[in-house]
Amino acid sequence: MPFSALAAELSELESHDLRRRRRLLETAQGARVRVDGRDYTAFCSNDYLGLASHPALIEAAREGAARYGVGAGASHLILGHSAAHHALEQALAAFVGLPRALLFSTGYMANLGVVSALVGRGDAVFADRLNHASLNDAALLSRADFRRYPHLDLGALERLLAGSRSRRKLVLTDAVFSMDGDIAHVPELAGLCERYDAWLLLDDAHGFGVLGPEGRGAAAHFGVRSPRVIYMATLGKAAGVFGAFVSAQEEVIEALVQRARPYVYTTATPPLLAHVLATSLELMRAEEWRRERLRELARRLRDSLRPERWKLTRSETAIQPLVIGSNDEAVAVSEALSRRGLLVPAIRPPTVPQGTARLRISLSAAHSTEDVESLAAALNEIERAFNGCEFRVRSSRLKVQSSTENLEPGA
Questions:
Q1: Is 280 an active-site residue?
Q2: pTM
Q3: Can you tell me the distance from the alpha carbon of 103 to that of 116, in angstroms, rounded to the nearest whole number?
Q4: Where are the domains of the chain?
Q5: Residue from 178, 315, 334, 364 carrying the catalytic annotation
Q6: Could you check whether 12-49+289-401 and 55-286 share the same CATH topology?
């Protein structure tokens, strides 16, 4: 029976501490949440600016529902493209400084749509090895020649571009890498694309709203303005709502309207969300203190957390990864924090490479300095306990013996 094979595969995931489980969020998203019946300080959402539960956005949602209803009812190309969608696209294009923008339901769908619409057999895609899964899946779906270069290795990318004789060339990269928090070399990438007649798809899911003047994103952060850039950003992270958009030259966007299957063949997002996002964009532009708070919290975390056993990677963004190494130890540390009322997710393969399981600490403007100092103090204490422990693995679950704390998962 096929069910027995699936059961065996699930058991295998369990044995390697790779089976994921959903938590039940019982409150609105924020720095303070109630999950599975318990209150926590959460460091695990992408609500970087703390806008997801902002009163102005809630009021805008009420206004949008009253004006536009709840559902779009049709795809954009049939009768689902509302005045709210159209106004938001114009505002987003102006915000990022490109001629035109196009809304998508999700960032995943946007990446699939862009890549499969612009390249195919006979073309070539070049991708950073640590790109988000959606960019990799998009490249595979396009059926173009798919070449990956080592993380941030511009020399390797240039060699691949120089050796390519493909009809069209498209470079794919995260702007801010979601599991490492580091930033792509956008000016150099744009320069290579100019030199070798390629497009650059910049996935700025984690930079939009956080980087650049007024949160205009990674390209603005570096002062890059190039017709080679196809800019994608999501609207459910720093913007606090839902959806994604692509902004580029007029010809590129019109080609997506005609050929991007995740745009053409799906119902439009509810127009009330576009109405809400107009307010979100205003808050992002006006409230620089939110980005200043993020930068200050990141500095405070780095000053307070000085790991010896683990490694806090260098990141100037809201994403602060603490690399633990083994899957079981990462899970144990995450669960030890959970018992202290601190939610920080353990990220394991295949999301990150083998041997680099980590805690992905996500900071938000909604956090206080005290929140970050409490997290750092807890991690410092837990690391000291781990350093004094003897480890043994039984049934692929970490057992830790310590005179100061029982760190066994589930204890």
A1: no
A2: 0.91
A3: 16
A4: 12-49+289-401, 55-286
A5: 178
A6: no
User: Tokens for 278?
Assistant: 């107009």
**Which distant-in-sequence residues (6+ apart) come within 8 Å of 214 by Cβ?**
95, 284, 285, 288
3-state secondary structure of 259: helix
DSSP state for residue 270 in the 8-state scheme: P
Give yes or no: 206 in active site.
yes
237 a catalytic residue: yes
- Residues 12-49+289-401, CATH architecture: Alpha-Beta Complex (3.90)
Helices (H), 16-68: 55-68
197-256 pLDDT, tens digit each: 999 999 999 999 999 999 999 999 999 999 999 999 999 999 999 999 999 999 999 999
CATH architecture of 55-286: 3-Layer(aba) Sandwich (3.40)
Set 54, 132, 169, 237: catalytic member: 237
Average pLDDT of the segment spanning 296-308 = 94
Annotated active-site residue in 206, 221, 275, 399: 206
* Token pair in block for residue 88: 């938001």
17 conformational bin, left if phi > 0, alpha if psi -120 to 50, beta if neither:
left
**Token couple for 309:** 């056993």
